[in-house]
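User: I'm designing a mutation panel for Transporter and want to avoid disrupting the core. Could you give me a predicted structure to guide residue selection? Please restate the sequence first so the numbering is unambiguous.

Assistant: Good idea. Sequence first, for numbering, then the predicted structure tokens:
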Amino acid sequence: MSFLRAADARDESGHLIRELHGVTLAQILEYLVAAYGWPELDARLRMNCFAENPSIKSSLSFLRRTPWARTKVEEFYIKARTAEVQGRPRH
């Protein structure tokens, strides 16, 4: 019996989601905002860029200068996309 591990989830192009192949930070942020919305992103990730007058532009600026925050957003994206690809509900 084979099973798909979360680390092995692939996108529509066949690339491993965890490698973020060809996915820009802007695309990641747009996906998360569409899927969760600003209030939910703030609740889950606790970053002021999602709470105080949030916008794609200002959030990208913050995430590009703040490595720990970018890592946190990318990890959240990987979990969300993996759940989506595997047909599991997002948490």
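For picking mutation sites, this is relevant: The two ends are 27 Å apart (CA to CA). The longest helix spans residues 67-85.
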